[in-house]
Amino acid sequence: MATATGIHHRSYRAELRLRHTRAEYLRLALMAALLLSLPYNLGVYWLGIANSILIAVIGAVGLNILVGYTGQISLGQGGFLAVGAYTSANLSERGGLPVPLSIAIAVLVTALIGALFGLPALRLKGLYLAIATLASQEIILFVVRRWSWLTEGKGFVEVSRLEVFGWQVSREMFEVQWYWVLLAITTLVVLAARNLMRTALGRAFMAVRDQDIAAAAIGVNLTRSKVTAFAVSSGFVGLAGALTAHYTETVTWERFTLDVSVLYLAMIIVGGIGSIAGSVYGAVFIMLIPTLLTEIAERLTAVAPVLTEQLPAIKNAVFGLAIIVFLLVEPRGLDRIWTRVKDYVRYWPFRY
Amino acid sequence: MSNFISLVVYGLADGAILALSALGFVLIYKSTRVINFAQGEFLLVGAYMFYTSFVLLRLPLILATVFGVLVATALGLVVERFVLRPLIGESALSVIMVTIGLSSVLKAVIQLFFGTSVREQPPILPTSRVSVLGATVPLNRLLVIVIAAGVLAAFTRFFTRSRHGVAMRAVADDQQAALTMGISVPRVFAMAWALAAVSALIAGVLLADLSAVEQNIANFGLIVFPVVILGGLDSVPGTIVGGLTIGLLKQFVSGYADPGLAEVVPYLVLVAILLVRPYGVFGETRIERV
User: Fold this and answer.
1) B290 contacts chain A (CB < 8 A)
2) Which one of A67, A132, A146 has the shortest CB-CB distance to B274?
3) Is B18 contained in some domain?
């Protein structure tokens, strides 16, 4: 219950609810209205960006389950995206499986491979684990690059236009139709992740993150929790990879380098470690930076042509600075900033 | 046989540079417990700073080196004071990510000022070929091994003999005990970063002399990880053994098997070491308590 002195719960049931105040329902409705109206207000270019953001949200949520909620640092995101993308592309193109089935199998395969590469986490933590996952990233990418069977020797896989049980995405309405598909999947993923964190498994993840030895002492099965965290997280990431494959219609290894792993880590840092909403904010923020910088450079190209020439370097610099500034100024990310804004409004005119 | 000898020389030269870049990495980790993902960019900045002074400003070799060392020291100090010090006590993830952010910024700055094209730099070390045990090898590779050995020996001596070196080891061993003995821990942290930047500068200049002054120098930073894991994250002798092992291994695999495979072999070694002996061959085992 929201009062002038803060949110107070009168029963455990009330505390466990996903939403507590009327304002939250109102914001949810506004958000839904905004998302549903986007295809009618945005052009093809911006809708394409919205689609990439939706896919990035899935990947960021998956990474946050592992890094933010279970505390296992992973630099292998790019590799797991690659596993999802190549599996689904090959199953649907060469195996002739229907796309939903191939995506589902890709999710399972990625979860399995994620669990396999998560095995070092049983003995390693922190810095050592980060380095181990860095190795897994490099190894997966090497396999993807060199195993010519995967791409039939072409170096890339072409994926045909999305077709689900006879319904095919049309060329004219490509971005709009994909927007609806991706919006539905992403909403489901975010809801699933949010609810996962309220289950015993989710709480075990958080116990492992906060103090793994203490968690083991109160009866959390460390081995199972860590391996499950890797599997669940990789499953989400594999879904993002498979969707990328079908959305972009080509799969090349350049899309899955270490830079991509870093990009996703940046999303959850900027958005908020250990927060599902934060993953969403972070994915939007990080994906919009390059686009907005391009816009600004184009607007100013008459005044300062230097901006357009140096655009790639400027993008890198802003990206790096965003990570550093967030870590130094607000390590809990956009999610925390948003909470503070809400608190400020709620308690006004008092400070706390 | 001659093929073997030249592979050994190339491997040792690569390994010597790897050991130098790993040395900076270990210096930072040992005293501040920070994993520096920007080590490759330190090499890059070092190589470009030397290029600026040697080629663009036309300074003589000695002055150019001094200029490079000064800039590297300043870079190390600034990074430590303004980026890493506020994060003391933060989680491993924050520290890793801040150095990743730093690497992105450093690379972008180099790109802004120098562009992405390869820069011409006259060779510093003689490129003539000499014959060793029946194989002809370039002289500059041999000299790189000698220079790197000299620098590593100097650093080892610094740690065992000099006052500051002993202070750094004390801080690495136990920060609180070091504090009670009157050692300034912040100063040691700053020194570690400055020394790391200087050793990266040397590695970067040597690497640029063997290959070219270009953005790809930064990629060397990632192969540092197999080296330090093999040798132990907090062991200075470990970097030498690890560097030489990985350097030789890469050359042998690329010479006898497949150059593409050579790129990934260091990481396979890394995983194997992590599974068998996570603290490296020379690393110190730490016991964790709640």
Assistant:
1) yes
2) A132
3) yes
